Amino acid sequence: MIEVINLNKSFKDNKVLNNLNLTIESGITSVIIGRSGCGKSVLLKHIIGILKPNSGQVIIDGQDVTKLLPKELNKLRLNFGMVFQGAALFDSMTIYENVGFNLIEHTDMDSQTIAKRVKEALALVGLSGIENLRPAELSGGMRKRVGLARAICVRPKIILYDEPTTGVDPIMADAVNDLIKNLHDKLQVTSIVVTHDMVSAYKVGSKISMLYEGRIIETGTPEQIKNTHNPVVKQFVTGAAEGPITAQNKIVNEV
Ligand SMILES: Nc1ncnc2c1ncn2[C@@H]1O[C@H](COP(=O)(O)OP(=O)(O)O)[C@@H](O)[C@H]1O
Ligand SMILES: [Mg+2]
């Protein structure tokens, strides 16, 4: 469904994506892992057309996103639900206005239909009836859920999550992972999750791809990634998921 072909992106001398190739299959959750600063968010921004590459293509349903005009991009983006790091809610708006934002701003849907969609989206994340509250009245976990409700309110074909568990405690991270899985099962969407959290990657992903030095160096099932023979992938997945435990084991082994 999504094909990234020979994608190159540099910011001045900083070559971030280096002939990157990646295929995202329809209907499954694909996770892209990699160290902080390796270009995960830059890759996501190319997929939704926020950034233009120096060269290469992003093909979605037969269309090259990198060649689309702004108007065509806006139309395409209604197929995407994007969950940003942090909830990125508008504090001055009600939850209704936040969740319905894209439908209110970018479609000519009538307000009754929008109200129904907002209600449905809030129910899916387990937050029925909070339309008239404001973000300041919610806990961190609830805000995160509202961010997800906003993404699914457009009934996207593709949901992109940028570091959904970064900056939340492990219990909330687990709740967020469950929510990603539940939404995927209920909505039958294609999901792309970008993360450096291996606990999350293993839990939500059907396929995991590792981004390193501007390329995807390996793609596999969680099981295949766990048992990888690629030393770079191995170092990352063990280090990121259980750094202190590995260090302890090493000391024990050395003794
Ligand atoms: N708009 C931008 N202008 C210049 N450099 C950028 C821009 N966006 C990202 N970068 C650089 O690209 C690299 C990858 O960033 P990013 O994709 O945000 O990493 P991460 O994998 O943590 O999401 C970093 O070196 C970052 O400084
Ligand atoms: Mg990022």
Describe this entry's structure for a reader:
This protein has 255 residues and is of the alpha/beta class. It has 2 domains: 1-74 and 157-171 and 188-255, 3-Layer(aba) Sandwich (Rossmann fold), CATH 3.40.50; 80-155, no CATH class. Helices cover 42% and strands 24% of the residues. It contains 10 helices and 10 strands. The strands form 2 sheets. A 6-stranded mixed β-sheet has the order 6-7-8-3-9-10, sandwiched between helices. A 4-stranded antiparallel β-sheet has the order 2-1-4-5, covered by helices on one side. Helix 5 (111-124) packs across helix 6. The protein is globular, with a radius of gyration of 19 Å. Magnesium ion (MG) is lined by residues 40-41, 162-163.
Helix content: 40-55%
Bound ligands: adenosine-5'-diphosphate, magnesium ion
Low-confidence stretches: 240-255
Mean pLDDT over the residues: 89
CATH superfamily of the largest domain: P-loop containing nucleotide triphosphate hydrolases
Number of domains: 2
Largest sheet: 6 strands, mixed
Q: How is the largest sheet built, in terms of strand order?
A: 6-7-8-3-9-10
H/E element order: EEEHEEHEHHHHEHEHEEHH
Number of strands: 10
